[in-house]
Specification:
By secondary structure, this protein is of the alpha/beta class. The strands form seven sheets. Strands 1, 2, 3, 12, 13, 14, 15 and 27 form an eight-stranded mixed β-sheet that branches. The relative contact order is 0.19. Bound molecules: flavin-adenine dinucleotide (FAD). The site of flavin-adenine dinucleotide has 43 residues, from helix 1, strand 13, helix 7 and helix 14.
Length: about 550
């Protein structure tokens, strides 16, 4: 028998305090009119390395803050299992991610609109990007200031990044100083969700302020195990905390924000999903929803490793105690230097063919090297340039295996579509075309992996199969749309079920052409607005609490 933990129902229960959940907790409590319960399976975000951008590399394999998922064997990747880190802590993946702030392309959102999702064209979503943002460079038509999400420049230029950007120009691509500006194409520095050298997760930007409000209750180490229904209406959540099973009721809505793996998992565990899958696990079918957990998309990146001619890489700093101390002091005193950078430093967006209208691949340029993401850095000067296809055609799935504490089966089915195989090969050739330019050649002692002997398309595809890995952008497992397999409608309401929404990366109809955190924050800003708007319609007295961006 589950213990009833909270004597009174909440207006809203938000499951998951990640990128989206923290935004929701803030916006839904701002007026003071709604009581909100925020459930988070992980703990507090006190871990030192969460807040220092470089700490990103230390959180890859830390089970205190990370679900440490991995995929099922991937048939087109030599049956390898690919790591899938996900934040399990306040702030969710925004507490462990690479900090890059990229929105994708306006065409991504116009495409969502074309798929039948009214209210999601770029013009529609831009006000929510702007509302979220505090852009260090100031306000303009595309950027906002005064929002909770701090966006800043990298702290200082780096010789190798300058060389990469120059080499891209030598290869015929433009320099681009704002990938979230009028055009995405070209090479340049990324911006970071950081402020004064500190990570700006949504826990820092949104939740910290909201936690001062008495109408928000945050439960950590609280794993939602089941959505509770009366008929086809969600009325609460069952969760496990400290060895006890508890329940909480929502008189308004239950909002799932567990991310692209956990939101479909919780729906399936609660009887919303493909009937056959649910029955196979002995779960009663509340609604047969074949789309729940399907359409998983992710960006597959393939990394080329280089040995550098000069000791100017992060490897050289990390491998010298003198330089480590120097870097530590520089960070402590000025919040500058290598500790203030996240995953990628510079990069670019490129078209692999003149036949594509907008960039179809993204490069990440990283001033360190190691054998794998999160692995120890090489004992010699090295750096990495990687390529990922921006709009994969391959579709995978997330399916429950057993109980909520056990990871679901995750299979993105990378490279299962021939277009993706062609694009990854074209992308690798394009990237090498940049690295072969004089500006970059000056710093390249050798291409270590895959090495110059691999040149044919077949070689490069074989390399992608053997070495390709995620760039951490799973989406679309509770896809928004108007078709029979779509899980949520354009107001993010679960189709056919009352009082239940999904508001996180899983609702993206298609993955955006860039890193996904900014898009998730936008989705949550818009989701919160729609939730409050719907509440205001139902209860006119609440109308004044709803301010459009
Ligand atoms: C290693 C890594 C690097 C990345 N780098 C970048 C980058 O540089 N730039 C970028 O834009 N994007 C990056 N991303 C992607 C981006 O961070 C994610 O797309 C985004 O954070 C997803 O937000 P979300 O709200 O959907 O899920 P999450 O932020 O993952 O939040 C889900 C939350 O729900 C909690 N939860 C899940 N299930 C339950 C349950 N049953 N009960 C209670 N709580 C639950 C989780 O613990 C988690 O806190 C990266 C991601 C990772 C993992």
């Amino acid at each position: 028998m589950a213990a009833m933990t909270h004597a009174h129902p909440f207006d809203y229960i938000v499951v998951g305090a990640g990128s989206a959940g923290c935004v929701l907790a803030n916006r839904l409590t701002a007026s003071g009119r709604h009581r909100v319960l925020l459930l988070e399976a992980g703990g507090h975000d006190r871990h030192l390395w969460i807040h220092i951008p470089l700490g990103y590399g230390k959180l890859f394999a830390d089970s205190r803050v990370n679900w440490l998922y991995k995929t099922e064997p991937e048939p087109e990747l030599d049956n390898r299992q690919v790591i899938q880190p996900r934040g399990k802590v306040l702030g969710g993946s925004s507490s462990i991610n690479g900090l890059l702030y990229l929105r994708g392309q306006p065409a991504d959102y116009d495409h969502w609109r074309q798929l039948g999702n009214s209210g999601w064209s770029f013009d529609d979503v831009l006000p929510y990007f702007r509302r979220a943002e505090h852009q260090e460079r100031g306000e303009d038509a595309l950027h906002g200031v005064g929002g909770p999400l701090a966006v800043s420049n990298v702290c200082e230029p780096h010789l190798l990044c300058e060389a990469f950007i120059d080499a891209a120009q030598q290869a015929g691509y433009p320099r681009n100083d704002d990938f979230n500006g009028p055009t995405q194409e070209g090479a340049g520095y990324f911006q970071l969700t950081a402020k004064k050298g500190r990570r700006w997760s949504t826990a820092v930007g949104y939740l910290k302020e909201a936690r001062r409000r008495s109408n928000l209750v945050v439960e950590t180490n609280a794993l939602a195990s089941r959505i509770l229904f009366e008929g086809r209406r969600a009325v609460g959540v069952e969760y496990r905390q400290g060895g006890t099973t508890r329940t909480a009721r929502a008189s308004g809505e239950v909002i799932l924000a567990g991310g692209a793996f956990n939101s479909p998992q919780l729906m399936q565990l609660s009887g919303l999903g493909p009937a056959e899958l649910l029955r196979a696990h002995g779960i009663g079918v509340t609604a047969d929803m074949p789309g729940v957990g399907e359409d998983l998309q992710d960006h597959l990146q393939v990394r080329i490793q280089y040995r550098c001619t000069e000791p100017i890489t992060m490897n050289d700093v990390v491998n010298s105690w003198r330089q480590r101390i120097g870097a530590g002091l520089r960070y402590a005193l000025f919040r500058k230097g290598l500790l203030a950078i996240g995953a990628g430093y510079a990069g670019g967006f490129f078209r692999t063919s003149p036949n594509v209208a907008t960039p179809d691949v993204q490069a990440h340029f990283i001033i360190f090297s190691g054998e794998a993401s999160g692995a120890a850095l090489h004992p010699f000067p090295g750096f990495i340039a990687s390529i990922c296809q921006l709009r994969p055609e391959s579709r995978g799935f997330v399916r429950i295996k057993s109980d909520p504490a056990a990871p679901p089966a995750i299979q993105p089915r990378y490279l299962s579509d021939p277009i993706d195989r062609d694009t990854v090969v074209a992308g690798l050739k394009l990237l090498r075309g940049i690295m072969e330019q004089p500006a970059m050649q000056h710093y390249i002692a050798e291409e270590r992996v895959p090495g110059p002997k691999l040149t044919s398309d077949a070689d490069l595809l074989a390399f992608a199969r053997s070495a390709g890995t995620t760039v951490f952008h799973p989406t679309s497992t509770c896809r928004m749309g108007a078709d029979a397999n779509a899980v949520v409608d354009e107001r993010l309401r679960v189709r056919g079920i009352g009082n239940l929404r999904v508001v996180d990366a899983s609702i993206m109809p298609t993955v955006v052409s860039g890193n996904t955190n900014a898009a998730v924050v936008m989705i949550a800003e818009k989701g919160a607005y729609m939730i409050l708007q719907d509440a205001a319609v139902a209860t006119p007295v609440a109308r004044i609490a709803v301010t459009p961006p």
